[in-house]
Amino acid sequence: MRRAAGCFVVEGEVLVRAALDAGLTVVEEFVLDGEPPISGAVLHHLDATTLERVASTVSPQPHIAVVALPATVGLAGIGDGWILVADRVQDPGNLGTMIRSAVAAGAAAVVVTSGTVDPFSPKVVRASAGALFSVPCIEVMALRDVAGFELVGTSSHTKSGSVDYDRYDFTGRIALVMGNEAAGLDADGPIHAWVTIPHVGPVESLNVAMASTVLSFEIARQRKHRPPAGSEH
């Protein structure tokens, strides 16, 4: 429905302002009676009862905006930076946190495969804290469609040829691929390399959003302190 309408919903003054700051177009704005508008879009005043009915949160904020989806960008338009790929990630809180961490760590784009929760759903938008507005979000059918990048998969279990995440060279044209919460990544998928996050104790694995955050900032650390892969030392 969002794709057909070409719009998505942003709730809360902070996020509406973040969308405007990112250059997105607010199509309509819904404001609680007595509150000033934020944008210059078509304005609708709502009473508290109506606002509660249309908002997606239990305690709605007084500003809701209908925002035009950003222009579609293909992977060919991404420069030399690294990207995050969410493969069939289903929890909106997880995906929003992953996007937030990736953007904070300098990701050039976010890619979602078919079966992943809609990145423009209200819960993902909130969890991303506006980070979703800052980078292209590209949708593909499957991992095989992520061309031009070295796909680095993650697993909580040691795979043949896998290395600890802090020993892998992330300074090239990398796509960090994070899999489904329950099933992870397909073992026979088009993954070029595997990394693991070592841990001790009875914990079997990290939450996908936590693991994504750890790896995103390791990528940022390496790309800050090491020359790009293939360059002369």
Q: What is the fold's blueprint, element by element?
A:
Elements: H1 2-5, E1 7-11, H2 13-21, E2 26-32, E3 42-46, H3 48-54, E4 63-68, E5 83-86, H4 92-104, E6 109-113, H5 122-127, E7 137-140, E8 150-154, E9 163-164, E10 174-178, E11 193-196, H6 208-225
Parallel strand pairs: 2-3, 5-6, 5-10, 6-7, 8-10, 8-11, 9-11
Antiparallel strand pairs: 1-4, 2-4
Helix pairs in contact: 4-6
Task: Write up what this structure looks like.
- The protein is of the alpha/beta class.
- It has two domains: 2-68, Ribosomal protein L30/S12 (60s Ribosomal Protein L30, Chain: A, 2-Layer Sandwich), CATH 3.30.1330.30; 75-225, Alpha/beta knot, CATH 3.40.1280.
- 24% of the residues lie in helices and 22% in strands.
- The protein is built from six helices and eleven strands.
- The protein has a seven-stranded parallel sheet, covered by helices on one side.
- Helix 4 (92-104) links the parallel strand 5 (83-86) and strand 6.
- Helix 4 (92-104) packs parallel to helix 6.
- The longest helix is centred in the last third of the chain and has 18 residues, at 208-225.
- The radius of gyration is 19 Å and the shape is elongated.
- The termini are far apart.
